[in-house]
Each structure stands twice: as structure tokens, then as C-alpha cells.
Amino acid sequence: MANVEKSIDVDVPIRQAYDQWTQFETFPQFMNGVERITQLDERHTHWVTKIGGVEREFDAEITEQHPDERVAWKSTDGKSHAGVVTFHKISDTTTRVMVQIDWEPEGVVEKVGAAVGVDDRQISADVKKFKEFIESRGTETGAWRGDVPRE
Question: Could you give the angle at which helices 118-137 and 14-21 cross, rounded to 10 degrees?
Fold first, then answer.
């Protein structure tokens, strides 16, 4: 199983950082490997990704979500993919966003990519782009403040 953990401090209040992260359909604007995310309902999304030349589609379920604290998900279609993003108040205007993603590389290309750190570099670039995206906008593109208890 491959694992990446990254964090970045963004110069926006925690509510703004969290609210933007709940707008899954905007992920392609700051995540290179994400082609499209469709929000199916409050707990379910459909992802289309292309990382290292490998295209993948999968469905994911929000397994836990608490405003201004965390969003966790896992794939539901047999692909092994899960993650959690947590939000930590550094000050009234600064938030630490911590991302952890676990997945099972499939095929030679994904396994080699994971072994040489391609995925690690991609997630690093994506969190930096999230920082640029949210800081340059001045406001979030939307918000979902619902709570999804851990099952």
C-alpha cells in the first residue's frame, strides 16, 4: 500500500479553507491528477483521475466529515483508495491543512511511480496549488457545513 502525508499552511481562516475543500467539483482547478469529480449526493462522489499516464475511475464515500475539522473518504468500487484531510487553526487568519492518502498501486506504471516518489511529488504540488487557489480567490467557491458521523 502506498501512502502520502503532506501539510501546508494557508493564509485564510479555518472556515474558509474547510469550506473550499468541501467543494469537490473544484478539485481539478488545483489538483493536476484529477480530471473530474461529480458529487452524487452528500456522501458519494465519482472520481476520474489521470496520474502518471494511468487513468482511473472510482466511486468514493465520505466516511466522516465535521465542519472545520476533517473530511475522510474511501473508495467503494473495489479500488483501494482512502484519505483524510484535517484542518488546524494556527491563528485567526492561518490554517494548517493536513492531507493523508492511502492507495494500492495497480500495474507496473503505478507501482514504479509509487516506488520513486511520483505520487509524493504530485500531492506536494497539489497542496501548494490549493494554497495558491484559496489565497488568491479571497473567498471560497461554496460550502457544505453538514456533519457526517463516523460509522
Answer: 120
The reported pTM is 0.90
DSSP 122: H
Amino acid, res. 2: A
* Per-residue pLDDT reduced to its tens digit, 20-44: 999 999 999 999 889 999 999 999 9
Number of domains in the chain: 1
Identify the CA nearest to 117 among candidates 8, 3, 30, 1: 3
Indicate whether 146 belongs to any domain.
Answer: no
Give the dihedral sign, CA 48/122/142/60: positive
52 domain-assigned: yes
Pick from 135, 117, 72, 80: nearest CA to 99: 72
Quick one: which of 32, 62, 35, 64 has its CA closest to 47?
35
